[in-house]
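Protocol step 4 of 6: structure prediction from sequence.
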Amino acid sequence: MKTPEPLLRALALACMAALAAGCAAPLDPAAPDTRASRTGGLQDPQFVTAAAGNGRYEVQASRLAMYRAASPQVRAYAQMLVDHHTRAHSELMELVRARGMRLPGVLPRGKHAKLDRLASATGDEFDRIYVRLVGIEDHQADIALFERAGRELRDPELRAWANKTLPTLRSHLEAARSLNLAAR
């Protein structure tokens, strides 16, 4: 019985992949340990990409809020986020450049949809959505990411930056919660 050609090609590709994996160069002791990514650990480049992308999104959403929010308190909160996240992004960029890393210029997945949702809202509805999405939900996620980074990152300067930034993120969350309660 003759084996079909597509099956032969698939088997050949699988064999080549197995050979390539077996012939991989041994780990360089000076190179970053990639095993953590296989076991769920947060890698430095993953954190940098997420932190920069989330910060970029929060600045964009907050700039929108500076002009669209109905409440002066929400506009002031948005201005604070723009100022703090812009400063944090500049600090992160200095660390990234010093390590020869590059950041993608795109927003993280799902953030465009949030921006679209904000852009379509007006008045008090805009304020409620902005405070809930950006102020509370996004900052809760940021805090979890930065706490994890403070424990798991290999680069001591990135880890220190994450830990230094955490109190500001926590203050943003608390300020948003205050706005949220005042809006009810």
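Step 5 (inspection) to follow. Confidence is low (pLDDT under 50) at residues 6-39.
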